[in-house]
């Protein structure tokens, strides 16, 4: 899967670009040329920042610590090997206990009214926007993956065992950033995605 080792600041730029890039797909729809211009400007702005400045933009310091404590690689990975963030964006935990392919299948059942598991209204709006811009999003916003269990086991399952909640199965990777994107890709019959993968060194 892995192609090349990359610096952690490159992964931080990827995360921050995706976070700031959400604004490109809200409200008034941009033309393709407007989208490309806005993306290029965001990318240029983020690429001018030093790592210390990048770190200051991370609101989640646990995420930042994890980025700092891993060696990073870029490549491609199969969705069947990825587990989503538990309860991603507030959906029913039972939709996120399997891999992202199973999560997407469950979401499709909710969408077609064949399941009554909870999915917030904002989820559908964001998913629709991603699906409309899939050919632009896919090559420009890689997913960020942690080693399997970094979030699903260490954070969520530890809590779930103490609170008698459904447990998440553990796969090769946990999706840190790009859960919505992964669902949009799987919904469009893609089987893998460009990724940055972290390997723990502690």
Strand order of the largest sheet: 1-2-6-4-5-3
- Spans of at least 5 consecutive residues whose pLDDT stays below 50 are none
Overall pLDDT = 95
Count helical runs.
9
Total tally of structural domains = 1
Classify the beta-strand content into a percent band.
Answer: 15-25%
Cα Rg: 17 Å
Biggest sheet statistics: 6 strands, mixed
Detail the topology: elements first, then pairings.
Elements: E1 2-6, H1 8-21, H2 32-47, H3 51-56, H4 61-68, E2 70-78, E3 82-83, H5 100-111, H6 121-132, H7 134-140, E4 143-147, H8 152-162, E5 173-177, H9 179-187, E6 192-200
Parallel strand pairs: 3-5, 4-6
Antiparallel strand pairs: 1-2, 2-6, 4-5
Helix pairs in contact: 1-2, 5-9, 6-9
Structural account:
By secondary structure, the protein is α/β, with parallel strands linked by helices. It has helices at residues 8-21, 32-47, 51-56, 61-68, 100-111, 121-132, 134-140, 152-162, 179-187, and strands spanning 2-6, 70-78, 82-83, 143-147, 173-177, 192-200. The model has no long low-confidence stretch (mean pLDDT 95). The radius of gyration is 17 Å and the shape is globular. The chain has one domain (2-200). The protein has a six-stranded mixed sheet with strand order 1-2-6-4-5-3. The longest helix has 16 residues, at 32-47. Helix content is 47%, strand content 17%. α1 (8-21) packs antiparallel against α2 (32-47). It has nine helices and six strands. The two termini are 22 Å apart.
């Amino acid at each position: 899967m892995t192609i090349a080792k990359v610096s952690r600041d490159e992964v931080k730029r990827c995360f921050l670009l995706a976070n700031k890039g959400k604004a490109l797909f809200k409200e008034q729809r941009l033309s393709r040329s407007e989208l490309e211009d806005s993306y290029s400007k965001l990318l240029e702005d983020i690429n001018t920042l030093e790592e210390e400045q990048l770190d200051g933009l991370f609101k989640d310091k646990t995420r930042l610590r994890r980025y700092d404590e891993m060696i990073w690689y870029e490549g491609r990975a199969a969705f069947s090997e990825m587990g989503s963030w538990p309860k991603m964006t507030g959906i029913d935990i039972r939709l996120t206990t399997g891999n992202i392919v199973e999560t997407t299948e469950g979401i499709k059942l909710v969408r077609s009214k064949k399941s009554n598991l909870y999915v917030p209204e904002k989820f559908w709006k964001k998913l629709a926007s991603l699906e409309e811009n899939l050919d632009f999003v896919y090559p420009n916003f890689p997913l960020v993956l942690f080693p399997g269990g970094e979030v699903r086991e260490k954070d969520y399952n530890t809590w779930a065992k103490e609170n008698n909640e459904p447990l998440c199965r553990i796969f090769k990777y946990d999706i840190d950033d790009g859960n919505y994107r992964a669902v949009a890709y799987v919904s469009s019959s893609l089987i893998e995605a460009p990724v940055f993968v972290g390997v723990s060194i502690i």
